[in-house]
Amino acid sequence: MNDSSSISPAESALEQEAARVLMRNPHFPATYRLDVREADGGIRLAGRVDSFFHKQIAQESLRDLPGVGKIENLLEVQNDGH
Question: What angle separates helix 52-62 from helix 13-24, to the nearest 10 degrees?
């Protein structure tokens, strides 16, 4: 199944803005399926990415976003052994 949205539907304005920032980042592939949620005064990222670089890029992209006091980066780096 091919879904046109790679980031979970946003429920709050902060989640919407965080998703927009990630989708517009040229260094972060739009093909990742991520869950971006507002949590505990910040943003929680969950899902899988292909590299530690992409995990860090996602986090750093959101660091200066107004309203983000902290980032809980739960992104998992998948290693398929290839």
Answer: 130
